[in-house]
Amino acid sequence: MLDDEWRIVTHSRQWLEVFQNEGAEAxxxxxxxxxxxxGEVSSPEEALxxxxxxxxxxxxxxxxxxxxxxxFVQSLKDKSSRKGYGRVLSQSDGPTYRVDWEVRxxxxxxxxxxxxxxxxxxxxxxxxxxxxxxxxxxxxxxxVDTISEGVLLMDEEGVxxxxxETAQDILGxxxxxxxGSRFDDDIWNGLREDGTPLPNVEFPFWRAYVExxxxxxxxMGIYPPDAPPRWIRVNAQPLFRDTEKAPYAVLVxxxxxTDERLKEEALQASRDLLSSVxxxxxxxxxxxxxxxxxxxxxxxxxxxLVNPQAEKLIxxxxxxxxxxxxxETMPKQExxxxxxxxxxxxETGEPAEMKVHYDTLDAWFQVMAVKVENGVAVTYRDxxxxxxxxxxxxxxxxxxxxxxxxxxxHDMDGRIVYWxxxxxxxxxxxxxxxxxxxxxxxxxxxxxxxxxRQCHETMMEEGEWTGELRMRTKDGEERIVExxxxxx
Length: 488
Fold this sequence. Notes:
Layout: E1 2-3, H1 13-18, E2 35-37, H2 57-60, E3 61-62, H3 67-78, E4 82-91, E5 96-108, E6 114-122, H4 124-146, E7 150-155, E8 160-163, H5 165-171, H6 175-178, E9 190-191, E10 197-198, H7 204-211, E11 215-222, E12 230-239, E13 249-256, H8 258-280, E14 284-292, E15 298-306, H9 308-314, H10 318-321, H11 326-329, H12 331-335, H13 338-348, E16 352-358, E17 363-371, E18 375-382, H14 384-402, E19 408-410, E20 416-419, H15 421-427, H16 431-434, H17 439-443, H18 449-462, E21 464-472, E22 478-486
Antiparallel strand pairs: 1-6, 2-5, 3-4, 4-5, 5-6, 7-8, 7-13, 9-10, 9-11, 11-12, 12-13, 14-15, 14-18, 16-17, 17-18, 19-20, 21-22
């Protein structure tokens, strides 16, 4: 309560609680029952004892723009009330407040004294809280707009109320189409990881709301309009008010893992293909990783992969072999020089090929090793039949060399591939000189071309041909020989 010179006459207890230093010592009281106000009058017991030597309002509260002064003057002059909201009220030596206010004129019944009654409601903390919320909201919006994940806010009705630009990019829909839609609208079609349809009620963000628990790292597919499905990894966090058990919203974040999933699918297809090749291969295949000591020297190899054919060849299962050390569990490989060969492949990068006989299997293998990262991939091919055939050929060649008849063999193109001792004696051509040459160029008279063609046609039709031919020796001497051609 102020008099007409704006001195503080009295104040309420609530005023003192808010503004602690604007009072003064008591003076001769003015009884409230002798005060006339515009409107209702506060009860006397709400007022403190009236002060003496009271301070002027503007000594206590700063009014640099005369805003309060003009309000008091106008109210007293017009004998009318004034009110407003959110005005600054600053103590000269203290804090600043934001207040809702009302100013009403008063005077004693005899008119001897008059002034204004100032009522205020402190809104400072409320305004600060709103300001803080606005700052937090702005920072949150800025954060949401800059992160690489899509973000949506879904309310308790399942309606999307907010989102960021990343969400529209991932989902392939503009924000104005997303916001306001409900999670189970027809535009939202989901997929499980196995590619089967995902009912909307099983969407991770709705489950988070229903179950009242966070859902983390859930993978689902979602269909953009007129496009293949996008695969997203979803985190959904239900939001609760302090006193409520049911969520009032769900904060949804998700990132696009479509490319990652396509790579995984391609990798899995590659693995399936590799597994099929390994399983169907007639060759034994093993992959070894190099084992190194503290000086990075290769001291052993550890089996990382073995195919079914290799299991048969070495007589052990993959369970027994994978993870085992080469020198410990397969000592025969070291005895055959394979450990050194594998080590050289890893260190030089040069592939290796060997033919190895395994006494326990009584079998020959062609072993081929190539470098694979920090190890080797090894192929074991059973060549026992080939080795036996080669031995037979050698034995037969020895017999043919002892034959009195000149014997030669050439391939279907006419290149000489075999030449025995008697052929050397007959023609003067040594084995080293003649192998790989054209038979027609070295052995036959050019005039025999037509006859040679007939011989070849007869042999191809009947399997053999017998007759006389004119041949030339290395020195050019012509000889007539009895010939027998057989198709081999």
